[in-house]
Specification:
two-stranded antiparallel ribbon, alpha/beta, 12 strands, about 35% helix, single chain
């Protein structure tokens, strides 16, 4: 996430990989938006062991961190199969004690690559036709998923376009139709403005993800931590708010929670772990994040997750330009 390590530039039609779109300015904005916040150390209070536990969609989790819907081992030298990659993410999340989200690739447009490992997880689909999404939601129900969702920012996917697979923007009416089509909780990802957040809340969805697809679908966009506070100010407690973007450690997690998010996700580290060692590696990284989050809560005087607020933040007011 550091701007000196963007690993990206204009590709002129080549495969993007896991860098950022264009000159990587949105990827950079994610890092800079979060980097402007520092933590206030507060130690003089009665000691208590920090409790990191919470619930997601009614299911207990060990900490407010979810494994995100990253996909596309084609961009990672095809190190493993897409199905094995998704198994690492979903089963690693379960081994640790949280919930994994699983993404879809154009090579698996007919059947989600995480379908065989969907039990206890959330399957996220690209914004295909309404008819196809309703079919896929039903298949996810039968596979034991605890939720389904649509990667709305996937409508700008260069990988799906290159594969000739149609993806679409979705209207407010289409969002409502999708929510009404399944008994499962629905998550809409790719929310970066109040207008879209309002439409998602009104659709009846249970959760939204503040995300710009890791800066991979539009250059010169805003950072996720830049838009999060405004979305939180309007919709906190009306819908579960999840965020990703430049989140790598437990210290990143606590800052995003302090800005008002209910859950944080970290994409690229989880991708590397699933490739490196499957479920066990994903679990190990989550344990590392948990140890940092525990320490961060201890050092900022937070005993429980609901005590984390913007009172522990100090802004350095770094320009995002």
């Amino acid at each position: 996430g550091d701007p000196q390590r963007l690993c990206m530039g204009p590709k002129f039609g080549e495969t993007m990989g896991f860098g950022g779109e264009g000159q990587g300015k949105t990827f950079d904005a994610n890092y800079r938006a979060l980097d402007q916040y520092r933590l206030k150390m507060r130690l003089v209070k009665k000691h208590a062991e920090p409790n990191l536990e919470t619930t997601f969609l009614g299911h207990p989790v060990a900490m407010p961190v979810l494994v995100p819907s990253v996909s596309g081992v084609k961009n990672m030298n095809n190190a493993v199969s897409e199905e094995e990659f998704q198994r690492g993410l979903l089963e690693g999340a379960k081994l640790f004690g949280t919930v994994g989200l699983s993404g879809q690739t154009p090579s698996h447009a007919d059947r989600h690559p995480g379908m065989d490992y969907a039990e206890g997880g959330v399957l996220i689909f690209k914004p295909q036709s309404q008819e196809k999404l309703v079919e896929e939601f039903k298949e996810a129900e039968n596979a034991g998923a605890i939720g389904v969702g649509v990667d709305l920012d996937g409508c700008g996917s260069t990988n799906w376009a290159a594969a000739g697979k149609a993806v679409y923007r979705k209207s407010p009416e289409e969002l409502k139709m999708l929510v009404d089509s399944t008994p499962l909780p629905v998550v809409f990802k790719g929310i970066m403005c109040l207008e879209d957040a309002q439409a998602v809340v009104e659709s009846g969805a249970k959760a939204l993800v503040v995300s710009n697809h890791g800066g991979r679908v539009m250059d010169y966009g805003q950072g996720t931590a830049e838009v999060l506070p405004e979305i939180v100010s309007h919709f906190k407690d009306k819908i579960t708010i999840i965020i990703d973007g430049a989140c790598r450690t437990g210290y990143d997690v606590i800052r995003l929670l302090a800005l008002g998010a209910d859950f944080a996700m970290m994409g690229r580290p989880m991708a590397r772990m699933s490739l490196a060692g499957g479920p066990e590696a994903v679990k190990t990284y989550l344990e590392f994040v948990k140890s940092e989050l525990r320490r961060a809560m201890l050092m900022t005087g937070c005993d429980r997750i609901n005590q984390i607020s913007n009172s522990i933040l100090v802004s350095t007011r770094i320009s995002l330009k």
